[in-house]
Design a protein that fits this description.
The protein is an alpha/beta fold. The chain is built from 6 helices and 5 strands; from the N terminus they run βαβααβαβααβ. α1 links the parallel β1 and β2.
Length: 149
């Protein structure tokens, strides 16, 4: 395995985010690598269709603010500087790839629910991040099947 110098951990705001972040922090310590944390807020129009006859700006702003607060708490729990925390707006796979390329990341860490069947065929965020990544990607298994610790 090669030496990693900069690890980007892409997390959602689920309860499993802590597990993914712990794994990334452990890897960063092992490799004495820089660790950067990112959460991508998807536009509500993407998540719920663009035909909604509402102005979603206020709701979108509130979601983004809540994400910033949660990311800040997670980063504080592992003593990560503000400069290494990013809450960005857009499509997760595009934004994670962009940050990875711009920041010379050599490992992206994401959570994966290990979906099978139709969910696997249709894809997931972690699968989308894997495809087209400029570096190694580690999918950390999270969810119900991870309870055998």
């Amino acid at each position: 395995m090669s030496q990693y110098n900069h690890i980007l951990v892409a997390i959602d705001l689920s309860d499993e985010a802590d597990d993914v972040l712990d794994k990334a922090k452990s890897l960063a310590e092992t490799y004495q690598a820089r660790l950067t944390l990112v959460h991508v807020v998807e536009p509500l129009s993407v998540a719920y269709g663009s035909d909604i006859p509402l102005d979603l700006t206020t709701l979108q702003d509130e979601i983004t603010q809540q994400a910033r607060e949660r990311i800040s708490r997670l980063a504080d729990s592992i003593h990560l500087d503000k400069g290494e925390q990013h809450v960005v707006y857009g499509r997760p796979e595009r934004e994670v790839h962009r940050i990875a390329e711009e920041s010379d990341v050599d490992l992206i860490v994401v959570g994966s629910h290990g979906r099978h069947g139709l969910a696997l065929i249709l894809g997931s965020t972690s699968t989308s991040i894997l495809h087209g990544a400029c570096c190694d990607v580690l999918a950390v298994r999270v969810g119900k099947s991870n309870n055998h610790n």
